[in-house]
Amino acid sequence: MMKKYKYELFNKLSEMGCDIDDALDRLCIDEEFLSENYVLLLDDLSKDTVSEPLEKEDWNMAFRMMHKKKGVYLNLGLSYLKEYFDIICESLRKATNEEALPHKAYFLKTAMDFHKQEQIIADIIKECQGNL
Fold first, then answer.
1. What angle do CA 52, 59, 71 make, to 5 degrees?
2. What does DSSP assign to residue 30?
3. pTM, whole model, 2 decimals?
4. Rounded to the nearest 5°, which phi and psi values hold at 29?
5. 102, 131 contact by CB (below 8 A)
6. Which of 40, 90, 104, 122 is the most interior residue, by most CB within 10 Å?
7. What is the DSSP-derived secondary structure letter of residue 38?
């Protein structure tokens, strides 16, 4: 049953744009480890929203949160989300308040769009778990 769950999860994520082959290469072709990490990702998806520090104009925290997500997500083959990481991480990497503040609305919209993608991923993982 776990094998069916794993392949259903991999197929659905692939349909979203996830590069399962790249993730398996990064994780030494360990399918069990990869599927376990997608489940662990649910915890991260449920609590860390980048919008909160952006709302508070805490640019450094927003950068750190998005940079952390970037590392995790890219290792899990979710490279189709790269545009969101680039917008927020690269824009805020060395930005001063004066440089970031005029773009706050754009950053918030990007963070909200990113969070929608996170919710889709979470729904796929939960749906596949429900089929166990």
1. 80
2. -
3. 0.86
4. 55, 40
5. no
6. 122
7. H
Q: How far, in Å, are 18, 30, 107 from residue 5 at the CA level?
A: 16, 15, 36
**Which one, of 70, 95, 79, 62, lies nearest residue 23 by Cα?**
79
Burial degree of 18 (CB within 10 A; 0-12, 13-18, 19+): buried
Q: Looking at this protein, which amino acid is placed at residue 125?
A: I
The full DSSP string for 62-130 is HHHHHHHHHHHHHHTT-GGGHHHHIIIIIHHSS--HHHHGGGHHHHHHHHHHHHHHHHHHHHHHHHHHH
pLDDT digits (tens, 9 = 90+) for 49-77: 899 999 999 999 999 999 999 999 999 99
| Residue 132, helix vs strand vs coil | coil
Residues 6+ apart with CB under 8 A from 15: none
